[in-house]
Specification:
With about 130 residues, the protein is α/β, with parallel strands linked by helices. Helix content is about 20%, strand content about 25%.
């Protein structure tokens, strides 16, 4: 039996839901949706909605979100990231500060959003280089 399953939405905890939603939307060239209840939504091109929610700072825990973008969009997204002034790095441990990676036959970068969530932008899915 085959079941069709798609990810519909995620709740993204943040210090300030509007600030975090606008930060990510700016970098990825996405739109911030209308706030509803405690959420400020940002929808990706494949229909997954990230619902940013403000939570008490003591309840924040590091979460990781990775976004796959086309290679031709990386330079513009990376330029917008650099404009924010946040620290970015090539590795998940944050040791290669100020660098990007070239993993899996593409490019990628890690950074924290204003809510302290670990964000990653990649141009090739993990393992893409193994499928050739």
């Amino acid at each position: 039996m085959s079941v069709s399953v798609e990810l519909n939405h995620l709740i993204v905890p943040s210090r300030n839901n509007r600030e975090s939603a606008e930060f990510l939307a700016n970098i990825l060239a996405l739109e911030v949706g209308e706030a509803w209840g405690p959420f400020v939504p940002v929808e990706t091109s494949n229909g997954v909605r990230l619902d940013f929610a403000s939570i008490p700072p003591e309840d924040l825990r590091l979460q990781h979100y990775c976004f796959l973008i086309p290679e031709e969009d990386f330079d513009a997204a990376f330029a917008r990231l650099k404009e924010t002034g946040v620290t970015y790095h090539a590795d998940p441990m944050g040791r290669q500060i100020g660098e990007i990676n070239h993993n899996h036959g593409g490019r990628g970068v890690y950074f924290l959003d204003p809510g302290g969530n670990g964000m990653e932008i990649i141009t090739q899915p993990y393992g893409a280089d193994l499928k050739r």
